[in-house]
From TrEMBL:
Region (Disordered): 1-27
Parts of the chain that traverse the membrane: 37-57, 63-82
Biased composition (Basic and acidic residues): 11-22
Organism: Streptomyces cellulosae
Protein name (record): Uncharacterized protein
Keyword entries, A-Z: Membrane, Transmembrane, Transmembrane helix
Length: 98
């Protein structure tokens, strides 16, 4: 009852997309090699932890190691998930799938 009319142009573009998908099949991302992803993650997380440790040492230096790590690990994980890993994977994406 509340259907909006579809313009013929939009209907044609939908048909063209459906035809292209039917011919080529669904696109599946290439498999990432887990060993290479591990290496890339290690290369990203080591400098992140070192730099965060050096930057927070004046403030957190007197605390016990488990307490310092309770601050550093979530900060490093957030940096890896939202900043570092996406950039590394974009940069080395072709290498990761070879």
């Amino acid at each position: 009852m509340n259907e909006r009319p579809v313009s013929p142009l939009r209907e044609q573009s939908r048909d063209a997309v459906a035809d292209a998908e039917a011919r080529s099949g669904p696109t599946v991302p290439a498999a990432v090699r887990r060993g290479k992803l591990w290496l890339l993650t290690v290369c990203g997380i080591y400098p992140t932890i070192v730099l965060l440790g050096l930057a927070t040492d004046p403030v957190l230096g007197d605390l016990y190691l488990p307490v310092r790590l309770a601050v550093l690990v979530p900060a490093a994980a957030a940096a890896m998930v939202w900043q570092i890993n996406p950039r590394l994977q974009r940069r080395f994406g072709a290498w990761l799938t070879r």
